[in-house]
Amino acid sequence: MKYLTSTTSIMSSRRPNITGFDPQKFAAAAGQPARDPWARNEAWRYTGPFTRVNRLRGSFPGFGIASVAFAGYLVYEQLFMDSGHGHHDEGHGEGHH
């Protein structure tokens, strides 16, 4: 039995790392970098014509012109065209039930 306990204590003890690499220290140091080395290379994606507003504006290329044209048509129809609501009942005489 003495042999069994001595082997278990050898297996459970921590062996020295011959490379000097400590995974726990590496994980602790690998958090968020203080300065992103790729930030300058990625900055063009969010500036100039690639901003969020400009990308959204480019999604509907004719929406502004169409809105102005439709609003102009509605104003023209309201001011100059005959609505025709008063003439609807004239065609129906007493004979129609």
TrEMBL record:
Listed A to Z, the keywords are:
Electron transport, Membrane, Mitochondrion, Mitochondrion inner membrane, Respiratory chain, Transmembrane, Transmembrane helix, Transport
| InterPro entries per the UniProt record, alphabetical | NDUFB3 (IPR012576)
GO BP annotations of the record are: electron transport chain; mitochondrial respiratory chain complex I assembly
**Where are the compositionally biased (Polar residues) regions?**
1-16
Identify the domain of life: Eukaryota
* The keyword Transcription is assigned to this record: no
Q: Which GO terms describe its cellular component?
A: mitochondrial inner membrane
| Claim: Ribosomal protein is one of the keywords in the record | no
Looking at the UniProt entry, the stretches that span the membrane are: 58-76
Q: What compartments host this protein?
A: Mitochondrion inner membrane
Q: Which family does it belong to?
A: Belongs to the complex I NDUFB3 subunit family.
Stored PANTHER family: NADH DEHYDROGENASE [UBIQUINONE] 1 BETA SUBCOMPLEX SUBUNIT 3, NADH-UBIQUINONE OXIDOREDUCTASE B12 SUBUNIT
What does this gene product do?
Accessory subunit of the mitochondrial membrane respiratory chain NADH dehydrogenase (Complex I), that is believed not to be involved in catalysis. Complex I functions in the transfer of electrons from NADH to the respiratory chain. The immediate electron acceptor for the enzyme is believed to be ubiquinone.
Q: What is this protein called?
A: NADH-ubiquinone oxidoreductase B12 subunit
Originating organism:
Salinomyces thailandicus
List the lineage, top down: Eukaryota, Fungi, Dikarya, Ascomycota, Pezizomycotina
